[in-house]
Every structure is written in C-alpha cells, then in structure tokens.
Write a structure and sequence with these properties.
The structure is a single chain. The protein is an alpha+beta fold. Strands 1-2-3-4 form a four-stranded antiparallel sheet, with no helix packed on it. A four-stranded antiparallel sheet has the order 5-6-7-8, with no helix packed on it. Strands 12-13-14-15 form a four-stranded antiparallel sheet, with no helix packed on it.
Amino acid sequence: APRSEVITSVALSPMSHALAIGTQCGNVHLYAINADLSYHKLRTLSLAEWGYTGQTSGVVQAIEWTEDSKVMAVLWEKAGLSVWTSFGCRLMYHLEGRGRGHKSHTREGGSGGAKRVLCWSPEGLQLLANSKEDPSKLLTFSFARVALNSTPMHASQNTMLSVPAACLLGDDRVLCIFGSDVVGNTEKPVLQHLMLPQTYVAANWPAKELAVSRDSTDIAVSGERGVVLYNMKQKRWRMFGDVNQEAEIKCHSLTWVQDIIMLCVTSCKKRPSYFEDPSGQHVQNSVQLRFYPKYHLDATSLLVTKRLNSVPRAMNSHENCIIVLSGEIGKLEAAVLRVVVEGKLDPSARPKARVEIVKEVCIVTMRPVPITVSFVPSPAKGGSAPKACIILHMDGQLCHLDLETGSEKGILDKVEHFWADSWESFNKGLMWTYGARGINILDIERVLHLVCENKMVGTDIQDTDLELEFDKEVYPLSLCPNINSIVGISQHCSNIPSDRSHGFSPMPKTQPLLSPLVRYLLNQGAKEEARKLISRSTRHPHFSHSLEWLVFTVLEKEYSMLEAEREIKGANNKSLYTLEGVIDLIQDFSIFVDVVVRVARKIDPVHWKLLFSQSGKPCALFEKALEYRSYSTAAGFLVIVETIEGPDLGQECALNLLQETLQEGEYDLTGE
C-alpha cells in the first residue's frame, strides 16, 4: 500500500495468490505475488465512484476471499459490506446503517472495540458477517454462482422465451435469465427461479455444480451426491431412480457432450458426516468419467466410463470431442477424447458408446493452474479433432496450446473470462474477452497469427468499445450472437422499513452487440461481412437503435476532426469505419430514412451539412419517406429541408405532406 496509508486489514487468496490490503483511507489495494515472492500492483478497489470518501466509508475492517479466489468480501467501518470480483466488478453491497453520515453504534479503538469478521461457506454460496449495531448477531447472505461457458449461447430469437440466455446456481435453485419477457420484449430480460426437487435437496444440499447444454435446453445440477437433469421443453426434472446409485457417486464437474451428460465423479460407499473430511487418498485413485443419455439416469443406461488419474482442473466439449486439463503448478496435462456412440441414442434402443483417446500432451510450465478451456473455434463441421485449445489460467493469463507440439504461448493477460466460437460474420471466428480492459473483440485468425510470431495480443487490440462497457455493478454472463446481445446481472436493493434491513434481488440486463460488431468489422475492412451481419439482424431487438447509434458515433468522430485530418486518415487507413462507409452500408435498408432523421434531431444543426453530404439531400430523403408512408419521419425532415435547401422548398414539402396526411386520414399529424 502507499506509504501514506495505514494498513488495517490483509487477506491472501488461497489459489491465485493475490494479496488484498485494506487501508485506513477505505481503499483496497490488490497485488499479485509471484513464485519468487516479487510482487506488482494489480488495481485499487474503492467506493469513491459511489460517493464515499475515506471519511464516509471508514477504515477497511475485514477482507475475506472465497475458496476459488474469484471473489472477495470487504467490510468497511461505516459503509457496510461489499462483494467484489478480483477484476473490480462490485457484485453486491449492503450499506448497513446507510453509511454516509451514520453514527456508528460500535465503540472505536482499544481492545474494547467490537471486532467484525467475515466468513464464506466452502462452496462460496453463503457469507456470514456479524452485525454492526449488535456484533453478537450474524447476518447471512445467500449468493448464486455464475455458470459461465466459454462458448456463446446459440438459441434462436424464436426460442428466447423457452430457453434461458444465462443461468446461475444457488444452494437450492437455478436462476434462469430469459432474453424476453412474456410479451416478447427483449429489452427487458426476466429472471425466474427454478427450484431443485425437494427430495434431492433434502439429501444433497447444497448444490455445487451446474452445466447448461449448448442450446440451453438441458440443465444438469449436482449437489453432495448424484445429479439431476432438467429439460426446458418438458418442464420436468430427472433423477436417479435408485437412491443407492445416487449416493455412490460424488460429482466434481459436469459437461454436456451433445445429448449426453458427462459426469466427472469419484465412487463413494457411504455418505460422509457433516464434519467428515470428504477429501482422501482414495479420491485420486477412483476418478472416472461417466456418460449417461439425457433421457435416463440409471446404471442400466450408462453408456461408457473412462478412468482418470486425478480430478481435472478444466473440461469442455465441442461436438463429440472433449478436452480434459489436469495437473499442478509446474505440470500441465491435456487429453483430447472422442465419444463414439454405437446405435441410436433413444429410449427404445440400447445404445453403447466408447471413448477414444485422440491426443495426450504433457508439458512443463510455470503458469498457474487452468480454470477454463475451449477448443480453438473453427467454422468447419465434423472432420478431424481440433488441434489447439485456448486456456485461461488462474492469474488471468489467456494462452494458446498447440495440441500437436505441446507449445503453450500467451495471448492476453488480465482476463477474467472469454467466449470463443465460430461466427458466420467472420471466416475464422471471433473471441470475446472480459477482464481489466472491459470487453474486447478479437479476430481468431489475427490471434493465431500473433501467436505464431510469439507476440501478445494486448498491444495489438483496439481500444475497448464504449458500447461494450457495462458499469462496474453489472457482470456479463452470456454472449447471445443470434440476437446480438450480451446478458449481464447486477444487484437490485430495496429497503424494508419493518426491520430496517435490505431486500436483495438479482436484476438481469442486456447490452446490444450489433453496433460494436459492425464497427469492428468495418475497422478490419470487412465490409461484406458487416453487410451480411446487418441483413441477418433486421428482426433483432434494438436493430433501429443500433444503426442510429452507429451513424451517430461515426458522425461525432468525423466532425471532431478537421477536414484535412479526415482526408489524410482516409488515404492511409484500411478502415472503412467512416461516415461514407457506414452510410453506404445501410442506405439500402428501408429503415435508413428513419435512422437519418433521428440522428439529425440529436446533433447540432451546424453538423447537418456533414451528415447530408453523405446521406443525400434532405428533400430526396423526404420524398422517400413519403413513398414508405412514414409520415412522422417525413415531418421530421421539414425543418432540415428548410434550413439546408431553403424556405421555398421547405414550404413545398410541407404542403405535399399536408395533402398526403389528409388523404390518409392522419389528422393528428395534420394538426401538428
């Protein structure tokens, strides 16, 4: 911490070895501790953005990390409790006593002062803290864990009401975020609570693992023992018919492989008591993968098993191929498996399966353990198994692993999560990263080229698009390319006067992707790909707003530059992200005239000349609006025509519009 700040609390994360230092000024400084005990500063967490200074927040009294080192809880003397990710997103706040101007009831200083403490449950789903007003009372906060997949969700727009866009796991429920409400308004995503079967929760509380299929139709949840499956179409849970079979397996992770649920389990003979240590030497010797069809959980329907040497660190699947990562610091083991099903996967048939080992790689590395993995996306369907994968390590290093040579090279640092998939808009696919830089878009082909040259992508990526920046209280959960949206979650808090407490409820939010995606493609010179993307998005939510914002932002960029600068930049840059390029891209769409007039209303009239120098004369756009019978849009052009092309032409257009509206019976618009 800076020398001018007095340290009041410290906490070392158990897995990432990040050191959090709380100070008397109310700041929390994060440092990365390296293997040689050297360190460097990562970032500072502060309540200053929410109006709290060091005096109003008070000193940092306690800091506590979750067991997986992804989240920390911070307790202030006056400003209450907040929960943060290690990359600075504030997930929850509990401003006990209102913080600002509130007089503390605890005694300050000396050994007689009341000590406040924090404690996470082993799964990180409950947080305990003693009350500020009465330290003998415990406050309990229940959380839901994010189920992040490294591949985007591919539900079509028509199925957004029937399958969730993102899921979170609570101790006894699954929180499902649907991209549309009941009237199909995708601007207002809704959250629904899917309760786990009571018979399963009673014996296996709390829920620990969650996996969602690629199309979001099927959900798998495991608790202390066994697993349960839920199908969104059938609206029903599936459980093991035999309770003894359920009690014999303890799931460490769940992965969907097409219509098969893959369980990574250890065999157990009895249920441990609450105080029994579940870890033991027998665990590492009995790890196996079990494959069950989604329609039946029973020993008779078990397709195949595969024994492993240890519990994997990360797993993922693509079609019928599986990537399994294991090992400790200093060694990384990667195995590519292929599941081959013999016979039809149907309840009326008796299918069998086998697991083939496609590739095994073991490398020596000093990188921290992996936490997420994904095959390198490719637009090709079927064929040979993927030859490379993308790995996210505990310290935020995103790496490329060549499965042929065993060479692992860095791509980007300071990454908390990533989505990688083949996109129709780009030949080799796109990769999205979220972390200290916000959300960034990367071209997979460009990433692979830089990896071959032993270069990090960090110095080559574009600046973060402002449209992709959620505020620091919204955590991005899911990427939905088929509706061009990112789904995020934030905490909603309301006061409950009866007990002067708070009511907490997660609030889903969406962010449109069309405008930043088109901007990215134009900056890469991919005009035809951008045109195809817009053509496929005409029925998507936020379509007109996205095009309007696209024109507005490029116009704002150009009128802030001098004319000479625009000419020089246009001559020396392959980027097509110019006003001329954007107008040329969208002028063939029927919504074009509406977009132009809405942009014109938002800008200063002194910039109309620049806008209409590329979009066409206002009079011509006015006539086009009349052809489309979009009379409100045509009325918006009247003042523009009068300003740019003269009052005589403006009066003529007004008379034409008056005549048209009278003939069509648009009397309200005629009166205006």
